[in-house]
Amino acid sequence: MTYEELLALAKRSEGKVFRTVTGKEFTVGIFLDCPFFTPASTGLGRSDGRRAAELFLERYNSTLSHRPSDYRDICRNATYFIGLIADSSFGDEREELMESSQNASEKYD
């Protein structure tokens, strides 16, 4: 996925409620060509900026990991990026794919 594809996905998804891997609800928006996320629990938008989003995508594209902890050194909002991408890409198969990704990752921890 490219940064432009991520932006397009976020634009198409504005107003939709997503869930993180732990089940917390959030929405996505765009500000100054950068995605931001608003957790339902706080109602406050948050963004790490474009560079963090690009670094997230770089790692995501190489690992396809759905574990937020795999991105903690580059991005605080990985759980939201993963929720957005997983929901839009995999639909009903989301849980199954996330579980298999986690099991595969555990082999290398």
How would you explain this protein's 3D organization?
The chain has one domain. It is built from four helices and three strands. It has a three-stranded antiparallel beta sheet with strand order 1-2-3. The longest helix has 14 residues. It is globular and about 30 Å long.
Q: Roughly what is the average pLDDT, rounded to an integer?
A: 86
Number of domains: 1
Largest beta-sheet characterization: 3 strands, antiparallel
Order of helices and strands: HEEEHHH
Helix/strand/pairing category: alpha+beta
Percent of residues in β-strands = 5-15%
Shape: globular
Low-confidence stretches: 90-95
Find the count of extended strands (DSSP E, 2+ residues): 3
Largest sheet strand order: 1-2-3
Number of distinct helices: 4
